[in-house]
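Handover notes (outgoing to incoming on-call)

Open items:
1. NAD(P)/FAD-dependent oxidoreductase: sequence verified, structure written out, both below. Nothing else pending on this one.
2. Nothing else urgent.
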Amino acid sequence: MATDTGEDEYDYDVAVVGGGPAGSAVGVFSARYGLGTLIFDRGRSSIGQCAHLENYLGFPGGVDAETFYELMHDHAEEVGATIESDLVESVEPADAGEGFVVRPQTGDPVTARRVVAATRYGGEYLRGLDDGTMYQTHEYDGETHEEFDKEYANADGTTPIEGLYIASPYAETSPQALMAAGHGARVGVSVVEAVRRERGYPDSIADYYDWVRREAERTEEWSDRDRWRDLFDSQFPDDHDLPDQRVDELREREVDRRLDAYIPREDADQRAEAGQRRLLSHIDDDLILDAAAEIDAERAARTDD
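NAD(P)/FAD-dependent oxidoreductase structure tokens:
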């Protein structure tokens, strides 16, 4: 579901610091919208401390942490995100006054229009952005300690600093991977909606959802492009200050996005098969061979009967 990207003055539209469930979820949503997305992952997510992940929805037998990590990153890369195996040392304002410079430990610095912090432990790399409200002090054992304020960000990830989002650490998130991924998805949607508003979509249209529907569910009325144009015009405010040409461009892009969300049954079947084959690539070959042998034995038994 890619759309116009267009922020050429930056290396990336979105830089995500942290490649665990929260950061990977952000990357999936931003990359699927067509935003150039870079995920920095130091390879030491708290997920790695799990002996076996048993409560993540969709894995009835549980899943080992290594396979789960591979699946997350495979998904993010499949939709267009780039994953850089490096630790981010600092995030600083760009010289132009908008956007950020992200400095990793070993690689070259990169610029990004937006940065999403998605590391569970601390936010020391954000010190260069601190306006005096990002960190809080507390007393422990007679000593004063300073740490990142987990209530600094709003529920949708936005912060007082334009372009900076916090997916983690955040007060309302949980160490549970499923909840971290859900919050990351919410922040990812928040990033996309901010981009849409920046590009001229009013609030009434900027709200974003990402789904794919069966073409058979679309009525004849909603197969007509002009019907979607009428809906767009009914939601677009009369007091806007955009040139007519820009409104026309936004309208056609939005209609394209809406229509592209419907796919024919054969396309859905192909995607389903491709998705299952992709999962097979993460399963041990010996287990696949064992399962195939069991299937062959069951088929032979049915034939004998």
